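User: Hey, quick favor. My workstation is busy. Could you predict this chain's structure for me?
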Amino acid sequence: MSARRSPASPLAALLLALALFAIGLSGTASAQEKPSADGELSAAPQSVAVAPVARDDQIAARIENILDATGWYRGIGVSASDGVVFLDGDTNTDERRAWARELASKTEDVVAVVNRITVTPDVDWSFRPALREIESLLRKGVASLPLFALAIVILPFAFYAAKLVATLVERMLGRQVESPYLRGVIARVAAIPVFLIGLYIVLQVAGLTQLALSILGGAGVAGIIIGFAFRDIAENFLASLLLSIRQPFRRGDYISVGDQQGTVQSMNTRSTLLLSMEGNHIQIPNAVIFKSTIVNYSAAPARQEFLQIGIGYDVSIAHAQEIIRKVLAEHEAVLSDPEEPLVLVDSLGAATVNLRAYFWFDGHTYSVFKVRSALLRLVKKALMEANISMPDEAREVVFPQGVPVIGMGSAAGIAETPAPVQETAAEESGAAATASEGGLENETETLERHAATADIPEAGEDLLPEEKRTP
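Assistant: No problem, here it is.
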């Protein structure tokens, strides 16, 4: 009994035949001449036909005739094998080489293109290319004249509009912001968008928006590089801006920054200038000031100071405290507000009881050094007049019970110490201030008068408010 043939047998046979034909084409192609390694291979632009219509010689002749007709190619040679076209020859531009490849790939029944055409640019020793470029630039320049006219009108208008906005903003902030530098910075920030709008209009009309964005991007990268290179300068500039906002001190304030003390003279974008009590000018970088602890002795008129006084152990502490307190309270430079003078026991020394007297005075009017000198002089006078001893522990030791004396060959006994001879105390001035102390007034104005004639390098623009603190 014969086997029945499956309906899928004709389809399987057809697929097998197509596979064998494709293998045969592959073997034939491999048997032909291989394309050179430097040739450009193009894939088939369409599906490959099993039975091509055009012969290889017809394809090669047609492509070669078209390339010869253009006159763009030298030594052109076209060959074809099983639908693969090989292009040989020379031309002067890459565009013409690519054009030959596109032509061959679009030809009927071409499977692939191996482009071996070389490019040899022509050397032109004449000035015609330069003249053509100059002519092109002239034509573009004439065509751009309306844009230049628009820029001449819009850009000055935008500049003056930005300047007007800056002036208005600076006037509006005249009372709210005391620092002229800070007012100027805020005014410029408010005015920049006005000018940028005018610049954007000009660039948009001229079609240079992308160019402007590229330039701004490059400027941003350059700004980052410059910022790293000049980090200290940028740090001091930002610190000056922040100090102008916070205003921890003003011109004429006596401040302490780290180990430096002095009266504030000016502040620029790099440093702050102090005038020390010795008349020296001290320039401190603003970044250092911003990071350091600032002690402003002139922020409030009332300032507290103290005196260190040592009295003997044989003296009534309460009596000495009252004498010292009265001397302080009666002095013209000592304030009763916010608090009356206080005299407290600070420590018990080797030979003295150490007292500390606290008092308040007007730091804007009086000098702390002169006030301390006057008060110490008056306290010493009052204590001596009250017969209150002030021994020096480095040179004097007090024996309230007498000095023990041991005689040779006799029993030890206690010898009574004879009463000390009362010496006449040196007469002390009771004036609030002596001529030697030069009065009690603050010496800041005197120092500033002498410092006004100094030649200060890197003075620059003063960023501090113009007015000083009023006493």
